[in-house]
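Technical note accompanying the year-one report. For the benefit of new consortium partners, we illustrate the data format agreed upon in the data management plan: each record pairs a sequence with a structure-token string. No post-processing was applied to the example shown here.
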Amino acid sequence: LISVRRKSGVRHGLTLRDSANRDATESTAKRLVSVDVVEENSPAATAGFKGGDVIERIDDVAVVTSIDFARGLL
């Protein structure tokens, strides 16, 4: 689990989970980032994030790891 802060120190209120899923034994694993926890009264809660949401993009940054998520906020 990763709790990410913006570079400016402003907290968005998300705790993220990096994971990899595979459809079949022979298939390539697909990496994804999902929301594990949304802090009450945070900007993320106000925006409507819910636990289990999968984050795929932030602007033009594809998100497959929590590091990509942090890069997308810069």
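Partners are asked to follow this layout when depositing records. Helices lie at 43-47, 66-73.
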